[in-house]
């Protein structure tokens, strides 16, 4: 495999709320390679977005706090960087696209202003030059009449147009990593396809790695090289996209894939729903957090947290069922 | 025995039915007591009301007591906060004055809530031209700055505390009417009102059983916060010579009376003003605390 | 829609409100008080002829709707009646013209205090939410809202003028200093316009206590408003975007959050301005400031009805106009607001 771009080790992020400490991330390990598109998939509240926000350190304190772990990027641990240096990385080396393009732009400034701002900030360019670059970027993302869009206020544009502009803004400083947090959830299905196509195309031209966060396995299948399945603050399975559909291993992944009626369901006994509810992360189940809902749970599942076990080339599972396999 | 058991079962049933409400209420109370400022406000408010009720027992000197030999006298052991320009004991007068403030505050709020509820509910419930006409009337009232309209009305009615109260009630009700109208409009659209109507509940029943109880909390918050400013405005009207007469035990009037002696007997104006400030602050702190727990939007 | 059309429409919408206001002032002045008696003061007894003459001259014996029509006609010609004995019976409008600049000066300076101190305090409070600066600012703002300003005026005067002698006791200028040439009627501004900086500083020193006193409640209201709208804005998605772009926290707050948080604060400031003018009633009395507030208190003392109504009408007009101004300003502050 290619070089590692960003490496997350043992990341724990907690939210200190009035009712208790929400243990949102329970020791995440993840490597992102140069030039790949890696997906994170899971239910709402499983910690996908928290992972993304932790990477660029946008977890708001209070109530959220990154308590443990390291995120190595370019030989530096992002979590130990002074804020000023982190700000030089944000929007420049690592940039982010958010879920709701309608709310992600500041309503009182024009699109062009907001894109030019990031260019002026990181590339030390003059306003006029930055404005030109902003229009170039808008054109680059396939926006017709980029001059007009640049002069528009966010409320004057459609959701799809805004998300294109968002992508333009995120890519304007040629980042090495683009984090896309459910970039199409708020959009119409037809627009969704366009945006995904756009992202695919841009990846080949810019060579940036993409961390794509979604709850939609279809999008994963279409876009990603590798995928991590998240459950209740843990990554439970990590594999190439091909192997995850061919050989889903973790009981949760199996349940997730079987819950989609349109996909090939040869691993499934029935069109399944996963019994039970997403656990309360203030009092997470001990051991493997999935064991109360798991139909293959054993005694030790409620006592120990499973390690990583290899079930195939580049395919790892965090489940005692596969303990026989190689350790990662 | 049987009746007690019946009662018990009735209470149990009521508790079960209102379980979520009780829980929420308990949660709110706990939240309220978590905020030290709100608790201070509550203590001030309760203290103020107690002082007003027990004034005859607490005040060292009777109402209208005067010793002309002690005009403008400085604070002393016999007269803790000194004496005012007619020789009255300032400490006693402040205690007696709390009754006036409390009376004004509660009278005005009571009239406003009653009148405002009536107008607001009628406007919201019947809508159409009734609503339009009533709201235009409130518009006109709200186009005046509060104090100025009070002044003009008192000027027309003639000075005196009763007229001050009437004027303030006339000026304050429109904002209550609008608040209640807004509440009723938003509640009216909810499903359970639709449900009540579909089973044939009368307008009156829907209004009293469903709509009003649900619009209470903003009214309570609003009136708590208003009590403080009503007392200040009443004192202000007394200060410019429209409310209580010279030498009366009314906080605003006491400040005015002390104004001419400010440089040689500053205590005359200082202490009644401090009383207004503390009581008003108390109501505001209390109201702020209430809003934090009653307004779900403000809840963290 | 063009901005001009919008303004015209807003002004047209004011007409029913203005008619309503005139109705209230008419009602109060013609149905409750007897204007003829008010004009003659206590001298009515034994002057039945004079009363009759005045009643006839001012159509007071006509039916009410016709009286109202005359009243509106007078208003349209800026005829607000005549002042009482205090002002020697000159037209109310003239007295108002003389006194209003002094009040406006106080109000502008008071608003200046409120904005310059209140908005930064509100931002500070929001940025340090639930930390020490926030607690201090919140308590101070609540104290400000609860402050009886007529009392505060006396206290400030006692300590800062009498005890420490930092500011003059009262008035606009000492007798030894000539007023600057009249342009606006506001001494501080006129002194600046005329380049008389000595006079400017003297006038400013006189204005500081009364205008601070006048602006205090607005200051507290603006602080609270700014805090809450800033907090609301800081939870918005676009703030996260701004941070994700790598902007410094300073820029995120002062450029991205502030612009948005200012919009609701502006509305409140506009509404507060009307209240500020009415607060002048008390501040001017305390500091012997010759503005319309003090004029109105004197009028109350001598039951000079026409003057009181004139004062009220002027303030209401200002109140309504400042609200209109805010609505127009809104369009510039928030591009999402469409005219209409």
CATH superfamily of the largest domain in chain C: MetI-like
Uncertain residue ranges of chain C: none
Rg for CA atoms of chain B: 23 Å
Estimate percent helicity of chain C. Answer: over 70%
Largest interface: B-C, 45 and 50 residues
| Biggest beta-sheet profile of chain B | none
CATH class of chain B, please?
Answer: Mainly Alpha
> Low-confidence stretches of chain B at least 5 residues in length (pLDDT < 50)?
none
Strand content of chain B: under 5%
CATH homologous superfamily of chain B?
Answer: MetI-like
CATH architecture label of chain B: Orthogonal Bundle
CATH fold group of the largest domain in chain C: MetI-like fold
Describe the largest sheet of chain C.
none
Quickly give the CATH architecture of the largest domain in chain C: Orthogonal Bundle
Number of continuous helical runs of chain B:
13
Separation of the first and last Cα atoms of chain C: 8 Å
Mean pLDDT across every amino acid position of chain C = 84
Draw up the topology in text.
The complex is a heterotrimer of chains A (328), B (300) and C (340).
Chain A: E1 4-17, E2 20-33, E3 37-41, H1 48-55, E4 64-73, E5 76-77, H2 83-89, E6 94-97, H3 101-104, H4 111-123, H5 127-140, H6 146-150, H7 159-171, E7 177-181, H8 189-206, E8 209-214, H9 217-223, E9 226-231, E10 234-240, H10 241-246, H11 251-258, E11 309-312, E12 315-317, E13 326-327
Parallel strand pairs in A: 3-8, 3-9, 6-7, 7-8
Antiparallel strand pairs in A: 1-2, 1-4, 4-5, 9-10, 10-12, 11-12, 11-13
Helix pairs in contact in A: 4-5, 4-7, 5-7, 7-8
Chain B: H1 2-17, H2 19-34, H3 36-53, H4 55-58, H5 90-126, H6 128-142, H7 146-157, H8 161-188, H9 191-198, H10 203-214, H11 216-239, H12 251-259, H13 267-294
Helix pairs in contact in B: 2-13, 3-5, 3-13, 5-6, 5-8, 5-11, 6-8, 7-8, 8-11, 9-10, 11-12, 11-13, 12-13
Chain C: H1 3-32, H2 35-40, H3 48-57, H4 64-76, H5 92-127, H6 132-145, H7 149-163, H8 187-193, H9 197-234, H10 237-244, H11 249-286, H12 292-301, H13 305-333
């Amino acid at each position: 495999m290619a070089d590692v771009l960003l490496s997350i080790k043992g990341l724990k992020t907690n939210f200190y709320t009035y009712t208790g400490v929400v243990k949102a991330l329970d020791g995440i390990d993840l490597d992102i390679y140069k030039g790949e598109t890696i997906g994170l998939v899971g239910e709402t509240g499983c910690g996908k977005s928290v992972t993304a926000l932790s990477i660029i350190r946008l977890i708001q304190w209070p109530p959220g706090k990154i308590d443990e772990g390291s995120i190595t990027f370019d030989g530096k641990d992002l979590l130990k960087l002074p804020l000023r240096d982190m700000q030089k990385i944000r929007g420049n080396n690592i940039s982010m696209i958010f879920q709701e393009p309608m709310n992600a732009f500041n309503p009182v400034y024009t699109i062009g202003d907001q894109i030019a701002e990031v260019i002026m900030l990181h590339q030390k360019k003059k306003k006029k030059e930055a404005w030109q670059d902003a229009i170039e970027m808008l054109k680059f993302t396939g926006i017709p009449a980029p001059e007009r869009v640049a002069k528009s206020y966010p409320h004057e544009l459609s959701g799809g147009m805004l998300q294109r502009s968002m992508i333009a803004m995120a890519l304007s400083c040629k980042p090495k990593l683009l984090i896309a947090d459910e970039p199409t959830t708020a959009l119409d299905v037809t627009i969704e396809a366009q945006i995904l196509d756009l992202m695919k195309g841009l990846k080949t031209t810019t060579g940036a790695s993409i961390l794509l966060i979604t709850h939609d396995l279809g999008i994963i299948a279409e876009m990603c090289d590798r995928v991590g399945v998240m459950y209740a603050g843990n990554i439970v399975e990590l594999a190439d996209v091909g192997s995850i559909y061919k050989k889903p291993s973790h009981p949760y992944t199996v349940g997730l894939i079987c819950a989609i009626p349109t996909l090939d369901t040869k691993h499934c006994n029935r069109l399944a729903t996963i019994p039970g509810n997403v656990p309360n992360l203030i009092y997470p189940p001990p051991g493997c957090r999935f064991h109360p809902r798991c139909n293959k749970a054993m005694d030790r599942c409620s006592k120990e947290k499973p390690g990583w076990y290899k079930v195939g080339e580049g395919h790892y599972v965090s489940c005692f069922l596969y303990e026989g396999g190689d350790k990662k | 025995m049987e009746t007690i058991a019946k009662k018990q079962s009735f209470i149990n049933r009521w508790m079960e039915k209102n379980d979520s409400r009780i829980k929420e209420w308990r949660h709110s109370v706990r939240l309220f007591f978590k905020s030290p400022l709100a608790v201070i406000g509550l203590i001030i408010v309760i203290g103020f009301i107690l002082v007003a009720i027990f004034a005859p027992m607490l005040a060292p000197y009777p109402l209208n007591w005067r010793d002309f030999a002690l005009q403008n006298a400085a604070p002393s052991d016999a007269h803790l906060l000194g004496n005012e320009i007619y020789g009255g004991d300032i400490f006693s007068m402040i205690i007696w004055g709390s009754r006036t403030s409390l009376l004004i505050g509660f009278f005005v709020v009571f009239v406003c809530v009653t009148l405002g509820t009536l107008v607001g509910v009628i406007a919201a419930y019947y809508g159409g031209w009734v609503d339009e006409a009533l709201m235009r009337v409130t518009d006109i009232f709200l186009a005046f700055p509060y104090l100025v309209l009070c002044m003009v009305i008192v000027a027309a009615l003639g000075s005196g505390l009763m007229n001050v109260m009437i004027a303030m009630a006339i000026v304050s009700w429109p904002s209550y009417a609008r608040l209640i109208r807004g509440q009723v409009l938003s509640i009216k659209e909810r499903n359970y009102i639709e449900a009540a109507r579909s089973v044939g509940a009368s307008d009156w029943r829907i209004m009293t059983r469903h709509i009003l109880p649900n619009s209470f909390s903003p009214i309570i918050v609003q009136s708590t916060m208003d009590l403080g400013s009503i007392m200040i405005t009443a004192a202000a009207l007394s200060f410019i010579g429209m409310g209580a007469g010279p030498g009366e035990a009314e906080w605003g009037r006491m400040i005015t009376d002390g104004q001419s002696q400010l440089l040689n007997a500053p205590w005359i104006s200082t202490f009644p003003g401090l009383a207004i400030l503390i009581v008003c602050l108390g109501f505001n702190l209390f109201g702020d605390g209430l809003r934090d727990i009653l307004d779900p939007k403000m809840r963290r | 829609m063009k901005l001009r059309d919008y303004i015209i429409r807003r002004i047209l919408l004011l007409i029913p409100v203005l008619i309503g206001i005139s109705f209230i002032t008419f009602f109060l002045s013609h149905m409750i008080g007897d204007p003829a008696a008010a004009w003659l003061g206590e001298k009515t007894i034994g002057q039945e002829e004079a009363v009759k003459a005045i009643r006839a001259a001012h159509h007071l014996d006509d039916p009410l709707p016709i009286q109202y029509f005359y009243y509106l006609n007078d208003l349209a010609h800026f005829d607000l009646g005549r002042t009482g004995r205090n002002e020697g019976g000159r037209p109310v409008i003239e007295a108002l013209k003389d006194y209003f600049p002094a009040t406006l000066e106080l109000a502008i300076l008071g608003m200046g205090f409120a904005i310059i101190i209140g908005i930064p305090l509100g931002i500070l409070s929001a940025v340090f939410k639930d930390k020490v600066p926030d607690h201090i600012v919140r308590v101070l703002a609540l104290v400000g809202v609860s402050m009886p300003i007529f009392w505060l005026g006396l206290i400030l005067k006692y300590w800062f003028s009498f005890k420490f002698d930092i500011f003059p006791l009262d008035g606009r200028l000492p007798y030894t200093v000539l007023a600057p040439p009249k342009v606006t009627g506001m001494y501080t501004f006129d002194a600046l316009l005329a380049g008389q900086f000595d006079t400017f500083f003297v006038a400013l020193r006189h204005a500081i206590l009364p205008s601070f006193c006048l602006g205090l409640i607005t200051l507290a209201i603006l602080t609270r408003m700014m805090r809450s709208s800033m907090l609301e804005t800081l939870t918005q998605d676009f703030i996260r975007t701004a941070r994700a772009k790598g902007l410094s926290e300073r820029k995120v707050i002062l450029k991205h959050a502030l612009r948005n948080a200012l919009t609701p604060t502006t509305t409140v400031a506009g509404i507060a301005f009307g209240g500020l003018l009415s607060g002048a009633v008390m501040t001017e009395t305390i500091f012997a400031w010759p503005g319309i507030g003090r004029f109105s208190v004197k009028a109350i003392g001598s039951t000079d009805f026409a003057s009181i109504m004139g004062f009220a009408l002027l303030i209401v007009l200002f109140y309504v106009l400042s609200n209109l101004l805010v609505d127009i300003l809104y369009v510039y502050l928030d591009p999402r607001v469409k005219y209409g």
